[in-house]
């Protein structure tokens, strides 16, 4: 009789366990510029791990005006978790740690973010180690000092150039950081501020002229910051730079891997997506509290070198750099101007 009862209990426990495992979780993915590599890698992780998750994707297509509608939909759908892509999306969805408003922000559904350049500067959390709210996520940018020191392992630049998008918070944070580092790292910083249209959007047609002005100022390296607009215009930016014989250092992978930037020290988007999915899986399937999950950086990063651009610039990487650099061969999709005029 005792064995029979034990068997019944074991069977019941197995059924309950299988039932729990079969419960499908719902993740609402709020994207800012389409489902790129990080988004795809995030979804692929759950498939590879055979974790039951269904995804609903919404894309703002870089239009902030769509985001309030996504927030209203999230309240109706009540997903188990919300994934946000980028600083703008995360700020508008979750609000600040200081004054998140339940009437305008999501405060009662776990939010996990990725591709946020600086969660502290963005006001999302007070402490990366202890978010202390229903929000956590993944870092993806190496510190600017680390990036620039790595750039100097390619060549010893002394005059850094920067295009500043005043409509992008990440760009302003990066500008401030590069200004701060200039005396410490021994370089001069020249800036060009992108003009805005009547709707407050940066004007892409101004990019070639501003690159030429930076070239005329004598910069020897152009830094491309983490900015969705400049990433969208990466062919125009890097093509204009190549015409002026200016190397571009990119803070994210897209301008190097898919366009004409010479180099970048980055966390690949696929790795960011995978790392973020691990955070989300802990919340969904291990009942981890997002308020206690540290916001961390993926351990693996890549030193990318665009050999096509190196050839155009006649500036080849040192042999010792080739021991660990990842070589890509990409060029701007559009034709490169013949001259810097």
> What's the overall geometry?
globular
Output the radius of gyration. Answer: 23 Å
The secondary-structure element order is HEHEHEHEEHEHEHEHHEHEHEHE
Distance between the termini: 93 Å
Helix content: 25-40%
**Structural class, judged by helices and strands?**
alpha/beta
Major sheet: 5 strands, parallel
How many extended strands?
12
Low-pLDDT stretches are 1-20
* Helix run count: 12
Oligomer: single chain
What topology, given as strand order, has the largest sheet? 2-1-3-4-5
* Mean pLDDT metric: 90
How much of the polypeptide forms β-strand, as a percent range? 15-25%
Quick take:
This protein is an alpha/beta fold and 341 residues long.
Report on the structure:
The chain has 341 residues and is α/β, with parallel strands linked by helices. Helix content is 38%, strand content 17%. Strands 2-1-3-4-5 form a five-stranded parallel sheet, sandwiched between helices. A four-stranded parallel sheet has the order 7-6-8-9, sandwiched between helices. It has a three-stranded mixed sheet with strand order 10-11-12. Helix 2 crosses helix 11 and helix 5 packs across helix 6. The longest helix has 21 residues.
SSE layout:
Layout: H1 2-22, E1 25-31, H2 37-48, E2 53-59, H3 67-77, E3 81-85, H4 87-94, E4 111-114, E5 135-137, H5 144-151, E6 159-164, H6 169-185, E7 188-193, H7 207-216, E8 221-224, H8 228-232, H9 234-243, E9 248-250, H10 254-257, E10 263-266, H11 269-285, E11 302-306, H12 307-313, E12 326-328
Parallel strand pairs: 1-2, 1-3, 3-4, 4-5, 6-7, 6-8, 8-9, 11-12
Antiparallel strand pairs: 10-11
């Amino acid at each position: 009789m005792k064995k029979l009862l034990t068997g019944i209990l074991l069977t019941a426990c197995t059924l309950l366990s299988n039932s729990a495992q079969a419960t499908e979780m719902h993740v609402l993915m709020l994207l800012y510029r389409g489902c790129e590599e990080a988004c795809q890698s995030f979804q692929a992780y759950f498939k590879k791990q055979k974790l039951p998750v269904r995804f609903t994707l919404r894309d703002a297509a870089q239009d902030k005006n769509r985001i309030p509608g996504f927030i209203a939909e999230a309240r109706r759908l009540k997903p188990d978790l919300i994934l946000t892509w980028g600083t703008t999306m995360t700020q508008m969805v979750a609000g600040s740690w200081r004054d998140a408003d339940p009437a305008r922000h999501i405060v009662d559904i776990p939010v996990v973010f990725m591709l946020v350049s600086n969660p502290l500067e963005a006001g999302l959390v007070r402490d990366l180690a202890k978010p202390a709210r229903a929000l956590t996520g993944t870092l993806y940018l190496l510190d600017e000092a680390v990036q620039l020191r790595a750039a100097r392992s390619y060549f010893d630049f002394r005059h850094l150039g920067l295009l500043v998008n005043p409509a992008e918070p990440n760009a302003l944070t990066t500008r401030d950081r590069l200004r701060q580092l200039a005396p410490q790292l021994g370089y001069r910083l020249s800036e060009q501020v992108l003009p805005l249209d009547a709707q407050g959007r940066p004007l892409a047609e101004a990019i070639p002229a501003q690159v030429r002005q930076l070239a005329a100022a004598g910069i020897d390296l152009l830094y491309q910051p983490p900015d969705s607009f400049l990433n969208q215009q990466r062919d125009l930016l890097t093509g204009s730079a190549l015409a002026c014989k200016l190397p571009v250092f990119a803070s994210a992978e897209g301008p190097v891997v898919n366009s004409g930037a010479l180099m970048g020290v980055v966390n690949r988007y696929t790795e960011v997506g995978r790392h973020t999915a691990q955070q989300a899986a802990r919340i969904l399937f291990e009942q981890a509290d997002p308020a206690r999950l540290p916001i961390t950086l993926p351990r693996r990063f890549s030193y990318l070198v665009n050999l096509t651009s190196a050839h155009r610039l006649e500036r080849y990487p040192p042999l010792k750099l080739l021991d660990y650099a990842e070589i890509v061969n990409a060029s701007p999709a559009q034709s490169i101007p013949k001259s810097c005029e």
